[in-house]
Specification:
Distance between the termini: 32 Å
Helix content: 10-25%
Number of strands: 14
CATH class: Alpha Beta
Bound molecules: zinc ion
Strand content: 15-25%
Radius of gyration: 17 Å
Structural class: alpha/beta
CATH topology: Metallo-beta-lactamase, Chain A
CATH superfamily: Ribonuclease Z/Hydroxyacylglutathione hydrolase-like
Shape: globular
Oligomer: single chain
């Protein structure tokens, strides 16, 4: 996307209008890992959204290589939240140097401890999942950028922003591209069994730090012209699926 298209797309993002088709944003590659998805944004300086768990390094590296991107090429790793299946691979990437790790302020204690915070189950399936012996620990890390206000992505040649949207965790982030695509981490779940079935059907995540606040963030996100939601598990899902999955009226419709 050239500079004019990026400026126009960013203007649309700020005033809540849909970006025109010719201002479409960068290619996005989904990288399915052991328990979660990571995403490569093929911007002029490639950016990774989430880094998988501590055992996902070889799979992540192979997926990036297939796209002609080395770990050392990444300009940034934006971590949607501090849970082990999204943040567990960060320390190994960060050790290579030269890239910026971005994390929401509320999840910095988790990153420093290298451990999930309390997982609050929202339904019976979640209570059963909590019985599984999953390791909540990972190698601690310190982010170079702590998000405390909307973060402009133009420094990476991307028309978009990183927004604080706490709910799933105290520091959950959403990466919002100006062309109407959003990376929402575990704000919602695609399908069931971690996205194995019906991945394009949006629904409630198993665990929420603050379920009511997470729901209000979904409504807030829907006030913007977002049409595609990339998820940490399953997905992507479209706007209609989110509205139906959370039984919401479209806040952009009069
Ligand atoms: Zn999570």
């Amino acid at each position: 996307m050239n500079r004019l298209a990026r400026c126009l797309a960013l203007l649309c993002l700020l005033c809540g209008a849909a970006a025109p088709a010719w201002a479409a944003g960068p290619e996005v590659v989904t990288i399915p890992l052991g328990f979660s998805n990571a995403y490569l944004i093929k911007a002029p300086r490639p950016v990774l959204v989430d880094a998988g768990g501590k055992h996902d390094g070889p799979a992540l590296q192979a997926a990036l290589q297939a796209e002609g991107v080395a770990l050392s090429d990444l300009a940034a790793v934006i971590v949607t939240h501090g849970h082990s299946d999204h943040a567990g691979g960060v320390a190994a990437i960060q050790a290579l140097g030269g890239k910026v790790v971005v994390l929401g302020q509320g999840d910095v204690p988790m990153a420093h401890a290298g451990r999930n915070g309390e997982l609050v189950p929202v339904n019976l399936t979640a209570r059963l999942l909590k019985l599984l012996p999953l390791d909540p620990r990972y190698t601690p890390f310190a982010p170079e950028v702590v998000v405390v206000a909307p973060l402009d992505l133009s420094r990476f040649g991307i028309a978009g922003q990183v927004l604080q949207m706490p709910g799933h965790t105290p520091g959950s982030l959403v990466v919002l591209l100006a062309d109407g695509r959003a990376f929402v981490g575990d704000m919602m779940l695609g399908g069931c069994l971690g996205g194995a079935l019906f991945p394009s059907r949006a629904g409630e995540q198993y665990f929420q730090f603050d379920q009511a606040r997470n729901r209000s963030q979904i409504v807030e996100l829907l006030r913007r012209p977002v049409h595609t939601f990339y998820l940490g598990h399953g997905g992507p899902v479209n706007r209609a699926s989110v509205l139906s999955g959370f039984d919401l009226a479209d806040p952009r419709q009069p």
